[in-house]
Amino acid sequence: MMLKSVNIPESIALFILLLFVTIDLWTRPLRFTDEVLPEHWNVMTVFLYPLLFLIFYIVSRPLYFPFRSRSHRLILVFLSYLTLHTVLFFSRPATDAPFSLFFLLTTWMFLIIVLSLSSPLFTHWHRFLFLILFYQALFLASYALLVSFGQSYIPIDNLQWLRIGPIALPQLYVGEQGSFLRLASLTNNPNAFAAWLVPGGLIAWIAVLRSITTSAWRRLFFFGVSLALICGGLLASASQTGIYSFFLLTLLTTVLLLPSRRLRLQVSACYITGIAIVFGALSLKPGLLLHLVSLNGRLDLWQAGLAASADRFWVGHGFGAATTGLFEQLGEETLYTFHSTPIVFLYEFGIIGLLLYVLCFSFILFRLIRNYRFDDVESLTLLLLIFWLLLLQFTESILIRPGGFYFIWLNLLAYATFRRDTPTDSTHT
Q: Helix, strand, or coil here: 321?
């Protein structure tokens, strides 16, 4: 229904953008993978991204970028540094050369697609993206909770099975049988599962709050049940990052949707007081607060990343070299990443690359906060998405790898540099 207002080429462009964001999730189900290990990637993605770009180019022929603005130079500088750095470090032993080319190719292709969108098509694309994020989260959460009733386990593969007659439904889990199992649904680990649930849960929360104010009871029932399922999935994942970020962002959403500034300040004061009481209570038990803040040993990984970055502080070690740095710091039994996007940027691209990344992220925050309007659901959802990525980047290193989270960030970067004061509005010359 939403796509009836756009023509066939633009509809194809929207679906291609959708596939760019979701291919990473749906081509790696039921396999433990790590975002810095390219050998675990499904080989199909290497061919799918160029094929999607070719289809987009044939259909849309983006011969020029509308709404050129000075802020587009920020993207140009960022991309130029990534390109130059990747080329110069291509032959270094620690650099993963094939994955470097894949990263560079997909980054350029996605930005060319997004920067060629017109203003109305950007609006359609964001509405389409919000719907997909919501229904994807609802499906993943419902699937995980359903399969959690299964009694068949394969410990070697960490698979749990629910058998209904001839149908067998699997999902990944983390933990030991007989104790609490962290569910991963159809994703590659519980943290990725929770990360995909957060934006869908926030969209459901917005719909619930707006349904209450407009007395839309059927809509309230649907989104209320959906929100309960998504929250159940979040708890089943036991992802501290996912649960913390969802809790904080639901509070922020509630405050932003309040009609008056005075009421927003009063509710914010209550929230801050409540959070302070919780932290005060946790601090009474020695070590508990430090354990929660450390997020299951991530502080050790962050310290290792900072120590490994010291020898090539300015220019870094090359794309994909973070695994080598982690091995040198913590040994061969370590199977994790640095679990921090800024630290991975620092290690692989140096302080120059990190500063460019921080500048781009800050620019997105500034633009989306400035463009926020109380009565505009799209501007609110976009603002929540960038805050979601802001929280996610400090505990996961997924905003530097080609995939759904990375492409959503690139989309927000392109949208933030978009100039909206041009009288003409077309994607074709």
A: coil
